[in-house]
Structures are given as structure tokens and as C-alpha cells.
Amino acid sequence: MPLLDDFSGFEFEDLMEDVFRNLGYENVHQARKTADEGRDILMEEVVDGTRRGVVVECKHTGSVGRPVVQKLHSAIATYDYDGPKRGIVVTTGQFSAPAEEYATRLRQNGDPYPIELIDGTDLRDIADEVGLDLYNGRIEILCDETLRPFDPASGVDAPVREAARDIQNLDADALPEPRKLVDFQPYLTISARIDAVFETSVGVIHRVNESNRFVVHATRGEPSVADSRLADLIANNGQQAVELDSNRFSTMFDDVDVTRYGQTETDYKEWAVSRLQQHHTTTVSYTGGNNVTYEKTCEPKQSDISIQAISPLYVPRVRQTLQLEQYTYPYSYYAAGPSRVAIEDGIHRCVHCEKETAKSYTYCANCGSINCDSHIKTERLEGTPVCTGCAVTERFVLKTKYFYDESNLEEFRSEYEQMALHEKAMENTPLVGGLLISIVLLLGFILTSGVV
């Protein structure tokens, strides 16, 4: 196994911790290196409803003899675990005949602490199962599950139609079919446990004992932690994940893309450990035995941090594009069936000022624009909405009137010419009202002046 053979014993243990975690074992962590007790990795498994402790000895050697298996048997017997226990010896090499005979006899005799042997040949088969590249000791990410890119009960177009329902003058049920693109984005949910104790001559001065769980965007380059909305979307819908079948989804979307994981699972584990080390590094003050105050930087060691699970899952990033006349409206979101996290809402945005916080929006059927209150008017001839961007305007009685086109303007001009004088005046009600008020005030002033 090139390169893997060059690993140190500690590096091999670190790798096997990841391998066993990917095989489905629980609470996988390396034993503290305080003493050689024949225990390198401790973990648990559930078989037929029974939880069992598993003690693992890792041997990065060409051949493993019977004494190693016997030592592990003793280590299992003295391991403080409340429940049944068994052991595993794993090596990149092979086992001697006496070692295999000893392990076989334990199983045949019904020993309470049976031991499984995994040699280099077995490790190659396991590597295929978990995506382990034996040439560089890295575990590739194998993932074929995704959150649902749409809700089967309502259809792919439902989010756009739902967003359009509160746009005034727009019939959401009569919208043209939007263009639909989906990009399956790679994410990981990483669960970790940190248990670090910092001591000086005066005793324990600081301790970190907590669990951490965070969601990571796992494309090329530096990983990034997802925001809380997306993390909740994944946590609340992960159990309803479906198979990522590009051919199936291509019949529902105009374009389907899958963004591959940018690094190996091993890389993300190392990044997570480093991130947790930085996050939990702190400087504490303590008083020594001589009553002098000291400061000490407490930085957890890698061995203080146990990555308990790295769960990959694709999250669909959907972009729908709605074309209304000459305007295009993007609507993007992360999807999980009926649940969504919005990325971009181009439907609730004025095309003229790009305002996204208006109290209401109105559709202009004349040009296809969606407008805030400041950029929508009432068409004078037909009494329907028209935007300030496409309207033809002309002033009547000093007030600007808005029309769909020159034809409507010309038609209103003809009507205006036929109006009585008082009807024309009412084309500018505020002006007429202001004049009447002014006349009343003037008359009042004259009458008052005459009395005096």
C-alpha cells in the first residue's frame, strides 16, 4: 500500500478512526495515549438492539503475532464498559497462523471477549466500501443523497407562483412556465466532542467539555460554516433525503448540475479539528502557590478533540427565472421539499428603483414590470395600473396623466375636448379644491374687512 505504508503508527490510528466511523460504528474516538494498555480506538456498535463496546488495536506492521491478540484480550477484559464487549485488531500487513488460531478459538469457545482480525486484504475491501484511497490514506466522500429539490405535492413551479400571489394586478395561476435550474451543492454535518483539561502546579485551571455540531459548505477552497437558517433546513429535513438521480431530475428541470465535494473527508476532519482548536483556545489567569497571578494560554491538543460523525448530504440550490414581457425575475432558494431558504427574491423588487422593502408591489401588464408604490400609476383612460417607466404622459389642467401608449393618449384628448368646463376642471381635483378654499378665505377676509 504505497504511501499508506509510510504512515506513522499514530497516523494509521487516526485514519482507522475515520474508517470505523464511516462503517457505522458510534462514539468512535482514540484512547488517551497516557499508557500502553493495548487500546488504540474505542467505539460502540448496536447489533440486534444490543449496544456493545468495541476495543481496537491498530498495528502498522508487516506481520502481527499471537501476543498482540492476547494483549488485546486482556485489554478488553479490563476495559470499564457497562455492557458486552469485543475487540478488533487491524493491520496493513497480515496475521500469523497462531494469531488467527487464537482468535478463532475465542469465537468457537463462546468467549465473552471475541476478537475480529482485519488484515491488509480485508482493508482493501473496506476501502472500496468507504471510499478510502489506499495510495494516500485519504477517505473520499461518497454521497448519493440529497434533500428534495421540490415538493411533489405542489410541483416544481409552486415557489414562484406562491411568491407572485401578493403582487397586485398579477394572476399567479396564469404565469408562464419559468426556466428552472438546480445545482446540488455539497454539505457536511460535522459532530465533534472536545474534552480538554489544563493543569498547573496548583491544579486544574481550565476545562472544556462540550459537544459541537456545525454544517459546512464543502466545495473547492476553504470550507465555510453554513448560516443558521440553512443548518436548520438540513437538520429538519435530512431524514427525508432522496437519491440524487440526475437523469430523473433532468426531466423536471431545464438544467441540472452537481457540484462535487472539493476535498476528502480526511481534509474536512483536519479542518474541523483545527477550527475547534482555535475556537476553544483561551488565556486564563490563575494564582500560583506564591500568591502571584499568572496567565496561561490554554490550547486544546488534537487528541482532546474527537470527530464523532461527518455526514455528507447534497442540498439543492434552485434558481427559477420568470419572464414577463421584457422583464426577467430571478427567484432562488435552497430547497427541501416544501421547505425553503430564500437566496434571492427578484419578484418582490421594483424594477425601477430596486426597492425590496415596499409595503406592496403592483404588476404593469403594459410592459411586464413589477413596481413599488412610487413607480406605479393609474392609467387615465382604462383605470388600470401602468408604471412610470413605460407610460406616455401629458399634463391636463396642470396635472400629469398617464397612458399606456400614444393611441390611448389621443383617445383621451378627444374625450377631453368634448368635456364641459367643470368636467375638465375635475381632472385636477386638488387644484380645484385649493382654488375654492382660496376663494372662500378671500371672501371671508373681504366681509370681515367691511364689517370693521
- From the alpha carbons, calculate the radius of gyration and give it in angstroms: 36 Å
Helix content: 25-40%
Provide a count of the helices: 11
Low-pLDDT stretches are none
Strand pairing plus helix content: what structural class? alpha+beta
Structural write-up:
The structure is a single chain. The chain has 452 residues and is an alpha+beta fold. Helix content is 28%, strand content 36%. The chain has 11 helices and 27 strands. The strands form 9 sheets. Strands 12, 13, 14, 16, 19, 20 and 21 form a 7-stranded mixed beta sheet that branches. A 5-stranded mixed beta sheet has the order 1-2-3-5-7, sandwiched between helices. A hairpin with a 2-residue loop joins strand 20 and strand 21. The radius of gyration is 36 Å and the shape is elongated.
Q: What's the structural blueprint in terms of helices and strands?
A:
Layout: H1 9-22, E1 26-30, E2 41-47, E3 50-59, E4 63-64, H2 66-77, E5 85-91, E6 94-95, H3 97-108, E7 115-118, H4 120-130, E8 132-133, E9 138-139, E10 145-146, H5 158-164, E11 167-168, E12 179-200, E13 203-217, E14 224-225, H6 228-237, E15 242-243, H7 246-249, E16 255-258, H8 265-280, E17 282-287, E18 293-298, E19 305-324, E20 327-336, E21 339-345, E22 361-364, E23 369-371, E24 376-378, E25 385-387, E26 392-396, E27 399-403, H9 406-418, H10 421-425, H11 429-451
Parallel strand pairs: 3-5, 4-6, 5-7, 11-22, 12-16
Antiparallel strand pairs: 1-2, 2-3, 8-9, 10-15, 12-13, 12-19, 13-14, 17-18, 19-20, 20-21, 22-23, 24-25, 26-27
Helix pairs in contact: 2-3
